[in-house]
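fwd from M.: "can u put these together and see what the complex looks like"

so here's what she sent:
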Amino acid sequence: MRNPITDVFFSDSQAYKEKHIMQLLKKLSVITVSSTLAACFVQAAEPTPENWFNAGHQAVIDAMHLNPNERHAKNVILFIGDGMGISTITASRIYDGQQKGGLGEENSLSFEKLPYLALSKTYSVDQQTPDSAPTMTAIVTGVKTIGDSVSVNQFVVHSEPSANLVNANKLTTILEQAKEHDLSVGVVSTARITHATPAATYAHTANRDWEGDSDLPAGATVADIAAQLVDFNINGGIDVALGGGRTRFIPKTATDPEYGVAGKRKDGRDLTAEWVNKHSNAQYVWNKAQFDAIDPNTTDHLLGLFEPSHVHYEADRVAHDKAGEPSLTEMTTKAIDILKKNSNGYFLMVEGGRIDHAHHSGNAYRALTDTQQLSAAVQAAMEKTNSEDTLIIVTADHSHVFTIGGYPQRGNPILGLTQGVGATEPDLDMLGLPYTTLNYANGTGYTGNSNLQPAGSKSFKSAAGAWTSGSEGHNPASFLSAVGRPLLNNALVQSPDYLQEVVIPLGAETHAAEDVAIFARGPKAHLFHGVMEQNVIYHVMAEALGFAEQHDAEEHDEAHEGN
Amino acid sequence: MKISGFLKLVFGLGFFCFSIPGLADSTSNIDQQWTEIACRYEIEVIPHAKSKASSNNAWFFWRKPGMIQTQDADGRYGEIWERTSNGSIQYRKLYHADRTAVEYMPADMPTNNISFDWIKLSSMLNQQELNALNIVKKTQVFGRSAELRKGKTDNQTIEVLWLTADNLPASIVKKDKTSSVELRLVEIAPLSAARKKPADVEEIANYRHIDAVDFGDMENDPFVKKVMNAEEHHH
């Protein structure tokens, strides 16, 4: 049987190629260079110069056939890879490709196949390198603000305790607007559902850490983030909320069903019970069996809280979770199945929240595998939706100081030691020592003696029997200066727990200030272009959903009334 | 240096952390039988090199069913381990002066290869470690029965004065080529009669709680900044 894609590459007949390229174009809306080459690699060990040329030409033909979708979107799905900078995407793409048996570089993550791309400038009103609160605020409200602030403007001082002042300066979010327009709305995250990124979609507060009432200072009148989620009252409330963060929803007199630790709420409220009581056809679940049993056809409001704090890294989820918890992909598809029942459409935010945490811990493996999982979630969303009526956006809130360096040969294991083209041994530095392709500029993998691990390479996990006080294996409070570099080998550095080397020792690796990518498909996706301010993302979503036109009309009416 | 840092010097890398899956669950009955107790210990680290200064620290230890708590002498810093209703162990660092607890999630323990041994938490040495030491004398300390046990490993000698009824050390002396580390009990009393009581669990519940995993996103938090700086200076 002939394969139309590979035949195009491997036929000697130019006429055959041209004819079938045109036929292909009719069948395939978008074929990127990378996906075409990936198909090529499955067929042949090495693409020929002609393969490269044709694939490049194909991409241009595809681009010429891209037709901007000017329709309004019925649905918008916003994916956030927390801390998913461009180097993270590149490394994850290679890792994913190598896991599939390819060389890796030619591979594409699902969202890299989306046709429209822009860069996002992530700085906040007061930070050159931002945190997740103001960046997500910019993404979902269209307005940049100051660090740690969640969907309030820059005029609210940090940690403002007054509900009146917060309310007077709150910024309306795209999720709130969606609700006001009778759409269904959902929030999904692998972090606590009250963490900064998901919180910015539904809550307003001047301190991202005020996630539960026990986090609030005495005398504060602003509501905690967990309470704001359950008390969200626009048009029947939030429809789906899935993630971690259970203890801030249950009173301190109650114990966690999975681990037995006490709840954190001082006000005695059981927000999980309130969720079920206040919403129609509502369910609360906290483990995978309960989650799997949810019938989207009969459930209209679903709250799922699968851990007391953040849910597991994808790399650890199945092996280590006591009660079982769904993957990000499973949460995303369940959310879509519930939300899509609304004929008016829906807004869904999905966050791969632990990419950021893995980077903070200096552990590339878990950052890459969580990015892989985000890619799988995007793929599932693409398959469950129609690009004609659903705008899908994939972006990051900020980057990390994560680098891909050296001159490794094509197909070199991305987690491995750098080995140059044609070399039979790893490349050596000027001390005569091998080094990895992936590194961090700062963080916990510094090779000097730390207060938790001896001098040399550092591990995400503590050694068996060793004292450790971190929920992440290596949360050092101090380091001594390193002497030289450790002697590395491939078995060590490709271990899932290896912490890549860093230049500057810190207790946690930091965010980075460079731009992040925005990928998009669907209605108005073509409005993403060039280098954009991060807050433009909101305005594209609002334009796609038709909120911007209404906003303009209302302003016009107000102006007329004023006259 | 925090209490756990001193204890690590005394007990080596094994103190407080053991990878013995399932052991914690088998200890609940023993835990119930052990006396509720309050102790005050002092630790002294004496380097053999005269150029290095010795250091010492006092700290409190409290034990009752389901809870172990420690606190440094000035009451600013402590640690608490609690057995939850389903056998998990919840560990928190307590910064009393800041009314803040840094918690380490039970869910993260397997990922990080951590499992606490409740017996060792409760008595500082487990039976296997005691059995490795020879009983050289039976005696009385603080009016309580005690055994003097001695042993030798590759590079160090260890001497333990063990309170048999209380399942606690009255002293541990560890010597190696570089230093001598001594842990000595200076006060012991039933918890109900203790001069200094542990922090109330209800009160701790009202502390601000921070998941240790969130430190990376809290670089501007005044408490996190202060803690990291303070620990750096201690090093």
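replying to her w this: Chain B touches chain A through 51 residues (CB under 8 Å).
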